[in-house]
Structure formats: C-alpha cells, structure tokens
Amino acid sequence: xxxxxxxxxxxxxxxxxxxxxxxxxxxxxxxxxxxxxxxxxxxxxxxxxxxxxxxxxxxxxxxxxxxxxxxxxxxxxxxxxxxxxxxxxxxxxxxxxxxxxxxxxxxxxxxxxxxxxxxxxxxxxxxxxxxxxxxxxxxxxxxxxxxxxxxxxxxxxxxxxxxxxxxxxxxxxxxxxxxxxxxxxxxxxxxxxxxxxxxxxxx
Length: 203
Prior knowledge:
Low-confidence stretches: none
CATH superfamily of the largest domain: Response regulator
Number of strands: 4
Strand content: 5-15%
Order of helices and strands: HHEHEHEHEHHHHH
Helix content: 40-55%
CATH class of the largest domain: Alpha Beta
C-alpha cells in the first residue's frame, strides 16, 4: 500500500515524496527531517500506533502538518487525533482526490476532514440547532460566523484580524461570542460544528 501511495502522490505536479517509513517508530525517527513539509500517517501501523506517532512528531516539530489516513470512520479516533493536533483525517476508502485535497490544505496551514465523515460526526448539531431555534436563542451574526469559520480552518486570531482589517482583540470577542451562542466548548466541538456547516471540505 505504501508503494501505491508513493506512486499516486508522486504523480501530482506539486508533490514530491521526500521519505518513507515502515512503521510508527520509523516515522518518529524521520519526522524531524527539515525536507519533510507534510506527513501522511497511517492510523494502523505495527508497533507504535499512528496516534502515538502523531503526538511524538508534534512534540518534535509542533509546526509539522500531519494527515491521517485510515479505514476508521469513528468519532473516537477523530477526537483522539484532533487532540494530538493532526491537521487532516481522510478515509482510505475515499477517492484519491480527497487525500490530495487534505495534503494541500494541511500544507497551507488549514484543517481538513473527509466529507464522508460529515453526517456521522456532525449529526448531533442538527437536533441542537432545532432546539436553539425553538427556544428563540440569539443567532450568530454574519461576522461572528465568518470568524468562527476561519478559526475552524486553522487560521490564528492574528491572521484573521489581518484578513478582516480589525484588531486581534475584536477577533477574540467575535470568537467568544459565537462559541457561547452555539454552546461550543473547545476545539473538538468547534470542528464538529464546522463539519456540519461544510467549512472543512473545500478550503
């Protein structure tokens, strides 16, 4: 499978396979190399698992984007990998184009979640939003929603402030207000909400 992936990735005009690893331990050993811009990590590997290898690599190089490739369409795995600060999560059974989109998104500092996971992981927000509407709770403003979208895609408060030509403090306020109105507690819930909105499919 690794050889097949290498051939696929090398065919893309803007990709070059810089190195390979047979297992999690080798991935950790080679992940510090400065010529590696993005890591594509299999979740299921002999010895050290993809989750552990991701955590270790992020400790070595916090700025290194890691794309997880797996057969598991499971919320538990996704949450663990988001906590480990993986940049993207792609199913092996999805078209190859999804992996390429994920790699490009991760390389540009954004987050990407396979669209095939959307319904399964984001469904709870459908019921939640209906309840909010029924209770007449305040809606998120257009600007608050815009800020939250940028945040969910991996942009920093400073980068968003630059895009919108406002202060970083203003971005922090918009983000806090939107999170409060939507009842979102932390990054994992924000990612799930972003999936429901379709924000992580086409960066």
